[in-house]
Amino acid sequence: MVSKRRLSKSEDKETLPEDASKAMKHPLSKMAKKSHDPNKVEENDSVFLRFLKTSGLTLKTGKNQNQLGVDQIVFQRKLFQTLKKHPTYPKVIEEFVNGLESYIEDCDSFRNCLLSCEHLQDEEASMGTFYSKSLIKLLLGIDILQPAIIKILFEKVPQFLFENTNSDGINMSLLIINQLKWLDRIVDSKDLTTQMMQLISVAPVNLQHDFITSLPEILGDSQHADVGKELSDLLMKNTSLTVPILDVLSSLQLDSSFLSKLRQLVMGKLSSVRLDDLPVIVKFILHSLTATNSLEVISELREKLNVQHFILPSWVQTSQSKMKSKGLASSSGNQENNDKDCVILLFDVIKSAIRYEKTISEAWIKAIESINLVAEHKTFDMAMLLIIYSTNTQTKKCIEKVLRNKIQSGCIQEQLLDSTFYTHHLVLKDIFPSILLLAQSLFHSQDQRIILFGSHLYKYAFKFFDTYCQQEVVGALVTHICSGNEAEVDTALDVLLELIVLNLSAMRLNAVFVKGILDYLENMSPQQIRKLFYILSTLAFSKHPETSNHIQDDMHLVIRKQLSSTVFKYKLIGIIGAVTMAVIMAEDRSVSSNATQRRANLSSEQCTQVTSLLQLVHSCSEQSPWASSLYYDEFANLIQEKRMAPKTLESVGQTIFNDFQDAFVVDFCAVPEGDFPFPVKALYGLEEYSTQDGIAINLLPLFSQEFEKDGNQMTPQEPTQKWISPLCLAPHFRLLRLCVASQHNGNLEEIDGLLDCPLFLTDLEPGEKLESMSAKERSFMCSLTFLTLNWFREVVNAFCQQTSPEMKGKVLTRLKHIVELQDILEKYLAVTSDYVPPFANFDLDTLDGIPHSTSATSGKSGGKGKTGGRKQKADGNKASSLDTLSTEDSTDCDTVPSGRSHLDKEFTGKEGKMVSLQNYRAFFRELDIEVFSVLHCGLVTKLILDTEMHTEATEVVQLGPSELLFLLEDLSQKLENMLMPSFAKRIPFLKNKGSQNVGFSHLHQRSAQDIVHCVVQLLTPMCNHLENIHNYFQCLVAEKHSVAHRPGVKAQEHHIMSSCYQKLLQIFHSLFAWKGFIHHANHHLLHSALEVLTSRLKQIEQEQPLEELVSQSFNYLQNFHHSIPSFQCGFHLLRLLMALLEKSTAPTQKKNKLASLAKQLLCRAWPRGEKEKNAIFNDQLHDLLCIYLEHTDSVLKAIEEIAGIGVPELVNAPKDASSSTFPTLTRYTFVIFFRVMMAELEKTVKDLQAGTATDSQQVHEEKLLYWNMAVRDFSILINLMKVFDSYPVLHTCLKYGRRFVEAFLKQCMPLLDFSFRKHREDVLSLLETLQLNTRLLHHLCGHSKIHQDTRLTKHVPLLKKSLELLVCRVKAMIVLNNCTEAFWMGNLKNRDLQGEEIISQHSPSQESSAEDSEDGTASQVSKSKATEDSDEDEASDGEKEKDSDETDDSSD
User: What HEC string does 192-257 produce?
Assistant: First the structure.
């Protein structure tokens, strides 16, 4: 039997080659025909076929699947046992493999062996479905066959490498390699790796990609390192395989050092790769990160990854869209879409990484957070912050903090956000809910800059996202508006206004949401109501108004309801809403291309609607002076914006003219007669009138009638009786002059008589009769003066732009009258207590102190009460809110008093109150920005304008110092309110924020860009005034005239000129510090402003770069420091120069000049007085000292100079004297100097990088020297608390002393560790000096507890903890350097600041022990510097030796 088996096998073996050779001789076509029968079974007596059949597998011919009759595991086990138990094993394996090799010579047979087998459906198989492997795959699972079969497969692969895919879509090369994937065990993995890499090296490019990506599924873990090296070498040779290689390397377990080298190689190519390859490359880089190098790698990645480079610019996309419409750019369009898909895929890779790897998200946040320059921030950074915010919920707070800091520092601006949304809107759209959540969070901030950034998020989300997102944005904005938070409401309304301009059609779809805000009008300010009605009117009436009838109906209902209300506040809401709606109704059809037809429509239908609406408002408000005044102001605004149709204006213009003339104008010859409290005179006329002609303003008689009715003001008036109140005089005149100017193109000849006509008044100058007046008479005179002032202010507003010299001269005369009346008014107010002036601004912000009316009659009485200026009884908040006007100070009233009359400060109230008209801004009519064109007139420097009206006489027109100061003060306030960010305005606690905007209603209806443009036009005359004032003070210095020895008039002149100087510098600073200059649209304004300053030095022939203009402007303004008359002027000049340097790209060149100027201001002796105790002066001195220390070359030297020279001079000087080197350093200002020096010292050492052992010896020595200087400065400052032991000084020592010790631990101790051996003496000396200072800090802790000052003791535990850490750290350094003899421990006594021992805290035994220790310490220090920190250890142990009470106190 055995011999027969052997014979049969040998026979089979002998016949196999012959059969195989015969089979190879048959044509392929014949073989195909032969195998066409689907039921044909391969029959052969070879070992291969027989063993397979015995094991349960039947081979089919042709293209039919091989059939497996048993389970795959059973088949492998049977075949393995058959081979293993065969008598000729292992030779039988060779026979089996040869049989397989012969069988697969046929292409169809080979293909069948590579494809999965057909599993026969028996009972076992029917239990469930499972994957059937191919024959080759099954054979590879048998260990004894695997090496030989792998060899056969690799020999077969080259036959198919360059063949195309078969008709059935099968690539034989890939099919062969797929057999090697996911093997349970690899017998010879090294050989398999070698063969795979050889195959990859010779394969064509299209197959190389697939072979490489198959490696992780083929190779075992043990071969990952070898494959990684092979692939890295291949990557160097063939960059086209970058993507598959990196994709594979990301899946391999490789050494970190190898990955680091590979990552550096890939990072170098990052900027030059194709966008298609970028996602895989970034995935590899993020995969190769570790916790230690994550920050470094992410920082480098964000620098080199410029996704924006792959996004087509908008103009290219526009041109391509045009080409697509012509069928010319289909390929480029496909490429564009492909690029967008790649960008989305890239961000998906990054999202996945930061979602599952916390270290990546943290590193990315730190990398972005560490960027300081604005130019270094990319759109990719902004997109990453938003993505991390949406992906990782744990980092939301961290992202918000980073964004807030970046926004506040100005690093992230609107332009960057715009570019981010433009570039990555497809990616950001997927995280829209998170963007909305972030915007809502930022809106709740107290900082206006952060709120504004949140508004930009809303705006760009609306601009770039779809309809659903737009609806959500509008809904969120409406929620903010209804929240009641003033800042949120203002910003949200501004965003809605922008969205209307951005996409009106999209906003109209969401109008129903905006309409719901009408239910929340009661809590809105007037400006907010204007914005809301402007928004709704635009949605309702602009373009196809017939589609928005529901909004129109609702608005008409609300307005009519408010106008008919007897509640005064609601009536004002109706007035504002109606006039605002009339603006849009008149504006809609006036702006049209089809002028003829549209004008016809407007003249008939729309004009009638507008006129009837305005008549309704007029009829509803004429019974209330307040309502009438507001209506006049709102109507005047409508006309000023030039939106009113001419025909509509004509229909109401004559009525306005007649009403004003009938109410307020009388004949000059008709002197009023009656029982008036004071004699009536015609005053302030500018021309001589005969008794036959001329007009006058009937002010005093009207006001007297109203004032006398004060006692009967509750008596109802007849409904038909028209209410004429002097309160309406100024608003009505403003409406009249704007109407006339609009009808006559700015010419006011029709009403020019009102400029020079007199007023029926009485003598306003109080003289000696002031003290003898009754309280009622004083109130009468105050109110009359206010009304006269407001008339003159409106007159100046009206005629300031008239070009004739005669008109200009009269305007300047009116300005002088205003200044004179303000001086008179200050005298009256100083002796009139509990007085409330008549209001001049009639919007809702000023109603807090006004009795709210419950009827039309009481509404009138409320107006009378205010107009009459009667004394108010205590009425809760109403009286108290206005009572503070005479005592509270404005922002600048301390630094620059009114200035017009320095001597008038002697006039004080009965309680000794000082009066400043700055606090009465709400009671003065607002000056228009056009008024400041008067600055073009000359100063007292003899600039002459002749009128030419009468050749026989010449009139000199000049702008005096007092008038100049009046204009500059007002302009400065306007710029501060309009251009300074709200976060920079200091609003007192519990003070209404709305009060900051009272008196600026007209200003806020203009854009900041418009205001800046106007101020730039005024720069030339302001430079003239600045130079004239500079020359004035230069002359004083040259003549050596001291202000103290000059007459009172000269002193007053000096004060006014100094105030003008300061106001001019403040105006310049407000202009150049405007943040709007960073926007590209405003760059031309900055260039224009800088060109004006530059032209004062040299002629500008051609356009110069910004840097040159900034440099020349800096030089021009710097020249003024020689004539600085006051400390405040010097401070504002320094701020102005710093604002200029912020516009420079190389500010470091001028840094030393700023430090030098700051030091000059500190070292100059200024006139002394109460200013040293002034809070604003102290703040300015604090800021000035900070500027000096921040810009000086060496902070430590500067601190040493002040503390080592200036302070000792102060200590040795008399009580009220100052330091001779630093005259600004007095006993009052010492605390400021001390606090700033401690803070800057701590900041300086904190920013110093800790040394490393790898640094050079020179670097170690430099840092050691630096720390020696820092500790020496710290020692000088700490020892000053022995002389100046007030609470602020001690608090500063505790606070910054601890921070200095902590910085020493973190930054200096590592340096001392590796510097100790080479610089032992220097290190010990440094530690000894520090130890003496820490002993003083320990004494300060004891002093705080003895005095039981909780403000100080709360800092003690943290300070003691830092001191103990220092002891342990020094001991560790000593042990590290084997120098234990330089360290020993003892007990330190508890002492107070003067060094006296605190006896109460020790028992007698403890006293003895402590005394011995202290003596021992002293002797040890005298022997060697090696005892540097022994007493510091004593401090630590001394604390441990204290009794339990001391310990308990420390823990509090």
Answer: HHHHHHHHHHHCCHHHHHHHHHHHHHHCCHHHHHHHHHHHHHHHHHCHHHHHHHHHHHCCCCCCHH
Cα separation of 875 and 877, whole Å? 6
Checking if the pLDDT of 1065 tops 90, the result is yes
Cis-peptide into 90, omega within 30 deg: yes
Do the beta carbons of residue 111 and residue 171 sit within 8 Å?
A: no
Q: Which residues contact 566 (CB under 8 A, 6 or more apart)?
A: 853, 854, 855, 856, 859
DSSP track, 280-307: HHHHHHHHT--TTTHHHHHHHHHHH--G
pLDDT at 938: 60
Give the model's pLDDT for residue 910.
38
CA angle 72, 76, 81 (to 5 degrees): 150
In this structure, what token pair is assigned to residue 234? Answer: 């291949």
CA angle 655, 657, 659 (to 5 degrees): 65
Which helix (H) or strand (E) is 695 found in, with range? strand 695-697
**Single-letter code of the amino acid located at 359:** T
pLDDT in tens, 1320-1372: 888 888 888 888 888 888 888 888 877 777 888 888 888 888 888 888 888 88
Q: How far apart are CA 237 and CA 1394, in angstroms?
A: 78
Q: Where are the alpha helices (DSSP H) in 850-959?
A: 856-868, 877-883
- Relative to beta strand 118-119, strand 67-68 is parallel
User: 608: how many CB neighbours lie within 10 A of its CB?
Assistant: 13
Measured distance CA(86)–CA(50) in Å, rounded: 13
Closest-CA residue to 49 (of 114, 120, 104, 116): 104
User: CA 1305 from chain center: how many Å?
Assistant: 34
Q: Which two tokens stand for residue 779?
A: 């109130």
User: How far apart are alpha carbons 807 and 827 in whole angstroms?
Assistant: 31
**H helix intervals, 119-188:** 135-140, 146-160, 172-178
Q: List the 57-58 sheet strands across, edge first.
A: 57-58, 67-68, 118-119
Contacts 24+ apart (CB under 8 A), 34-39: 34/61, 34/62, 35/61, 35/62, 35/63, 35/64, 35/108, 36/62, 37/61, 37/62, 38/62, 38/64
Mean pLDDT of 1188-1196: 90
Q: Strand order of the sheet with strand 681-683?
A: 665-667, 695-697, 759-761, 681-683
Tokens describing residue 703:
């006001």
Environment class of 361 (CB within 10 Å of its CB; exposed 0-12, middle 13-18, buried 19+): buried
Q: How far apart are the first and last CA of the chain?
A: 102
Q: Are 1278 and 1289 in contact (CB under 8 A)?
A: no
User: If we measure between CA atoms, which residue out of 412, 424, 498 comes closest to residue 1078?
Assistant: 412
| Cα–Cα distance for residue pair 1154/1137, rounded to 1 Å | 8
Residue 1270 CA: distances (Å) to CA of 173, 855, 1175, 1313, 1363: 74, 73, 31, 18, 18
Task: Let me know: does 303 contact 378? Beta carbons within 8 Å.
Answer: no
Going by C-alpha positions, the residue among 1398, 1292, 1389 that lies closest to residue 1345 is 1398
Q: Decide: 575 and 621 in contact? Cβ < 8 Å.
A: yes
Distance CA 1441, CA 1451 (A): 15
Cα 410 to Cα 1003: distance, rounded to the nearest angstrom: 26
Alpha-carbon gap, residue 629 to 1268, rounded angstroms: 71
Amino acid at 1308: C
C-beta of residue 980 within 8 angstroms of C-beta of residue 1008: no
Strand partners, 681: 761
Q: What is the value of pTM for the model shown? A: 0.74
Q: What 3-state DSSP class applies to 16?
A: helix
Q: Which amino acid would we find at residue 1131?
A: F
If phi > 0 it is left, if psi is from -120 to 50 it is alpha, else beta; for residue 957 that is beta
Name the pLDDT band for 804 (thresholds 50, 70, 90): confident
